[in-house]
Amino acid sequence: MNMLGAMRKNGWRKGLIMLAAVSLLAGCSSGESGGSSPAAGNAGGSSAAPAANPTLKFLGISANFDINKQGIIEEIKRLTGYNVEYYSLPADKPDEKLNIEVASGTDKDILTLSPAQFAQLSAQGALADITDLVDKYGANIKKAVLPESMELGKVDGKLLGIPNMRDNITISRGIELRTDLMKEYGLTMPTTPEEFYALLKTVKERDKAIIPLSLSPEWKINTLMSGFTLYGDWNEVDGKLVPLVKMPGMKDYLSYLVRLYQEGLLDADYAINKGATVNEKFSSGKAFSIYSGWNGVAQTVPAMKKALPNATTDFVMPLKDKNGKAGVDVPVGAIRIIAIPKASKNIEHAVKFMDKQLQRENPDIFSQLNMGQEGVTYKIENGQYYLIEPAFSEKYSYTWWFVTGIDEKVAPTMWLGRIRRDPNMFNAYEKLNVSLKELAVYDPIGYMPPKSDSLKFRQSLQKLESDFVLEVVLGNKKVSDLDAFIKQWDEAGGSQMEKTVNEWYASHK
After folding, report:
1. What is the dihedral of CA 254, 494, 477, 203, to 10 degrees?
2. Average model confidence (pLDDT) across the chain
């Protein structure tokens, strides 16, 4: 039985344990930065798509690669019969850009959305109802996506998007630091917030030029949050879900971040850093530690080896709180939802295009788009995928960004083959997940279907939270202002969302 299916059959908590075990052998990568730009499927002077099919426009997540130069575009056109122009959201304020794009009457036909973006746009009535079209033209979609998973694309009984489920259950990020400098300074790996503070302080004392901890303006640093008994956006306390901003440890965590910033242990450019800037500081030796992930080391480690051949790195395990407990939020459910804006003039063709990509027989288009040709770009041994390089990377490295769906039955094993090709990435993946079973705190609302009256506030509330925390860290607001902020959060939709979330959780935990 498929692991995701087992979750629903045996209860999602038990099922998560099963999938977590498989995830040490399987999972999916994602882009982290980039800007809006088109990639036309007819690039390179190739023949045009069949006249019967219109050219479709696809808006994807931000990309840290040039979407115009990917050979997979031609493969998609050849196998589906559709010519597609590709655009990406910028890394800076992607939600705002998306909202403006849709509100202005977008000309895009397909949107790749985060669950929060999907909830926001569906609440605005901006997405097309594709229920009947999927029934008529979506046979492959229905085979690839479990009925239970499909519920995450429904709002008030209407199918507004096709969920791309997480084909991995993993700890994906953590604080990465320079272990060669730790050895030089006689330091050991920290296990508590105070030990981590002392570590950064010693690094600063030993080398005034290095930045002890460099971050972009994000504040949910799972390694540090663990030390204050904080995990995800929703935390179970006495059988109920409490939003992160209302957790007892929130003030202490904010005070800790303020302390790091005021004492020069947190990058002075915290408020303006971009993700790429942070990575460059780390790989060039300007920063001692950063908040990184197993998919990010594919860029940082090779660059560091070139600049600092003797440098070594490792990840800090989630810090222990005052009771000796450690944990880390592990996302579950849909990682993305593919939707069609109501303004599209090609809704029917967009559904047909999405369905075609999931075809598994005569020919197996899904495998060809995601892995290429067996014996040429990959091989299968004992049921596992192994990539043949450089043939695979020449065309299929970034397939995940372009495709509009996954087959839940085979995607996990395909993913494992993809990350195995990069020893640095696979090594980081294993390090971060060595204690997954003991540390994982699964997102309690990961399988909660979006509802027009509940999660529509998620996107705006997350921005409200980020803006407030940034102001506190920079010293423009005080930690004590959290009480007033919580009242503002409640009035901005937080109270309503908290009520709906707990009503759902009471019947599904």
Report:
1. 20
2. 89
